Amino acid sequence: MDQAIQNFVRPFISPAKTQVISELTKLASPKVTVVWVFLIFIFFLYQRKIRNGIGVIVIFSGGGILLSIIKQVIARQRPFERMVPEGTYSFPSGHTFGSLLLLFTFFYLIVPYFNKLKPLIQITMTIFFLFIIFSRVYLFVHFPTDILGGIFYASFWWYLCSYFAAKYRFWQ
């Protein structure tokens, strides 16, 4: 599966596209994700929903720590042909994990404050997520199964955190 998808992507590669995609994929880098989480925290402070802000920090930081451990345990090497340097192991995709957690955060925690903008926010976040997963395969920094691993892990982590938040009535 990995090889078939990589072979499909290969004919679409060009230096100009690679330059643009490698810059845009930084929007889901760990450093930028920390900025997103900080802004979401500030938003919840402004809304006087401090527990929601703390919850978002816990979800992202706890998930990120576990992601690092999983990457070290599995220790899957990145594709040999990668077009941009990456410093960690490949599985699961951290960019995919972080961008999907952002999508879930916006869908379930932010959108309720912006009902009139709900479709715009949901479409924008979905396009953002799809672009990020495409970019990771296009740049050959991940195998497609790394992307699936990131999707599975983010979904499982969000569900687990949501389950406990609901059980203990954490969200305000």
Automatic annotation (TrEMBL):
The UniProt entry, under Pfam families, shows: PAP2
Q: Which residues form the Phosphatidic acid phosphatase type 2/haloperoxidase domain?
A: 54-162
Q: Which residues cross the membrane?
A: 27-46, 53-74, 94-111, 123-141, 147-166
Q: Which UniProt keywords apply?
A: Membrane, Transmembrane, Transmembrane helix
Reading the lineage from the top rank, the first entry is: Bacteria
Please give the name of this protein: Phosphatidylglycerophosphatase B
* Organism encoding this protein: Xylocopilactobacillus apis
Recite the lineage of the species: Bacteria, Bacillati, Bacillota, Bacilli, Lactobacillales
